[in-house]
Design a protein that fits this description.
Length: 308
């Protein structure tokens, strides 16, 4: 059994499948689906597949929840994809193929190294679909969706809002005073960390930039931001969550956004403390420099990474 990319000529067999009563019960009007797939087949944020066992037997799709139209999935973390699936050939029903095609799709999604979570929204009465999800490790969330964590880190990335300023600025101050203090003298640390009080500046950055936060439970454990020209402005991890994969997760989202913006490279002014992290993730030092914080000039490095 294998999956392959969906082609326009597959619409004919899919239409036949969708018109079957056992599929219409859960998928609804076939014409709605045919129209949607026809319109979206070339869009980057949704992918369609056919499942084959010598012949076509089923259909799969996944879509990026932060780009899809509003729905139950809209509040999911950045890096989440929603999935849908069906067995179109009735000969393959009740034989474990539903579980198998979900596994195929999840493995394909994992192999892209772009996504952290997978969600599905089966109709409540679709018991076989729910069982197939559960056999693949999906668990029902409080919002009713069934979810699978591909990272097993518990880290979830969301867009930051102005309501997050208090927690973000405290994290900024505490990280500088407890982590960056190993590489900078006390007077420079005090000067740099004093920016935490400038609420207007922080609100402006959140509004103007692609500003994201990393959450574990209800706690912000990191944040990062990217300007429209590819400037990576912030990358901070909570002092108690260093080396937990927070910054790496944030950076993957930043790089993905840079590609979407059409940036040729990401550039940043990186502290002594963070220099090693950025080098490990492919950034190159262009120059060592002094950059003014509030009243003090601090050593940092202009670093860049070409986006492919």
């Amino acid at each position: 059994m294998k999956i392959r990319e969906f082609k326009l000529e597959d619409l004919n067999i899919l239409r036949v499948w969708l018109e079957q009563n056992y599929i219409q019960e859960f998928w609804g009007d076939p014409q709605v689906w045919i129209r949607e797939i026809s319109e979206n087949i070339c869009i980057e944020w949704v992918k369609y597949f056919m499942v084959e066992c010598d012949k076509p037997i089923g259909f799969l799709q996944y879509y990026e929840t932060d780009k899809a139209p509003q729905g139950e999935w809209s509040d999911e973390p950045i890096g989440t994809v929603g999935i849908d699936y069906l067995i179109g050939d009735s000969e393959y029903l009740g034989k474990g193929y539903g579980t198998a095609i979900i596994l195929l799709l999840v493995d394909f999604i994992k192999s892209s190294n772009q996504y952290d979570y997978v969600v599905a929204d089966p109709i409540k009465g679709n018991v076989s679909s729910i069982k197939a999800l559960e056999k693949n490790g999906f668990k029902q969330n409080t919002n009713g969706l069934f979810g699978l964590d591909l990272t097993n880190t518990g880290i979830k990335i969301y867009r930051a809002s102005k309501q997050d300023v208090s927690m973000i600025t405290q994290l900024f101050r505490d990280t500088i005073q407890n982590v960056n203090s190993k590489d900078y003298p006390e007077d420079e640390i005090e000067d740099w960390s004093s920016w935490w009080t400038d609420t207007d500046k922080w609100q402006e950055r959140i509004e103007e930039q692609y500003f994201i936060k990393a959450m574990i439970g209800d706690k912000i454990v990191g944040f990062s931001s990217l300007a429209s020209d590819g400037y990576l402005d912030f990358m901070f991890t909570h002092k108690d969550y260093q080396r937990h994969g927070v910054a790496g997760n944030l950076l993957r989202k930043i790089e993905r956004k840079a590609k979407e913006q059409g940036n040729d490279l990401i550039y940043s002014d990186v502290s002594i403390t963070a220099k090693g992290f950025f080098e490990r993730h492919g950034f190159i030092v262009k120059k060592r420099q002094f950059k003014k914080s509030r009243n003090k000039e601090l050593i940092n490095f202009r670093m860049t990474k070409t986006i492919k």
